[in-house]
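N-acetylglucosamine kinase: structure, please.
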Amino acid sequence: MTLYYVGIDGGGTSCRARIRDDQGKLIGEAKSGSANILLGVDVAMNSIIDAITKAAQQGQLNSNDFSNMHVGLALAGAEQKSAWFDFMAQPHPFASMTLNTDAYGACIGAHNGQNGAIMIGGTGSCGIYLKDGEQHVVGGREFPISDQGGGAVMGLRLIQQVLLAEDGIRSKTPLTLYVMNHFNNDVDAIVEWSKGAIPKDYGQFSPVIFQLANEGDELAIDMLKQTAADIEMFVLALHRKGADKVCLMGSIAERILNWLSPLVQQWIVKPQFDAIEGALMFAGKPQHNLYQQA
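Here you go.
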């Protein structure tokens, strides 16, 4: 009987799966929808099974092989204890599941299991420093109350500035005009949209913010300066805890390096492996569960 190991990196926007056999050979890799467990443990489980199913098909495996798969889960929202237990209480077809945060998986992968820190800035944000198996975490308490330096908070701030521009309180720029055009130049449409908007909906504006900042848009530049200051705040906090090697990870953080101060830039190193590989490293190892089941 061949055992398989699965790494899952699940965030607010997507869920990525990678399957290896017990010799480390790659079987398949695939992607599906959101796997942030705070957006629904059932939604996350469906995304995980969907991504694993697609990845398994690449290696001519199917759902009959799930019972031989040890799954390492690095999921956004896993830090919330009640959500962690709700997720792990669900029935599943796998040999085992080990659940920790997306930040934990990213940090294990980035430093190949050695001591080190990461600063994630994707849809959300979180800083984590792993030292001799002990976790030191900054931020990461989810949008909108935390996650500064992430795309969702940046998008929320952008919408606020767009509305101020529409009221004549601040000047309009190509960026505010872009957002208004996105909503058919209808402020009421923005208000209506905001009632049901989730983090990735706000985060969708980050690519155009980077693009227009490079073209000299005043508001876009201000947005990136603020986001860089947020990321720097967390990196400095990690450094005070002892971290002298920090990897920037996620779609925002990876592009913000040149906006950081020289002091902070000197601590930045390139990640060795990604979060999926980090999750693979703890698949089948229950001691890596964030919380222990009774």
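Notes: The first strand starts at residue 4 and ends at 10.
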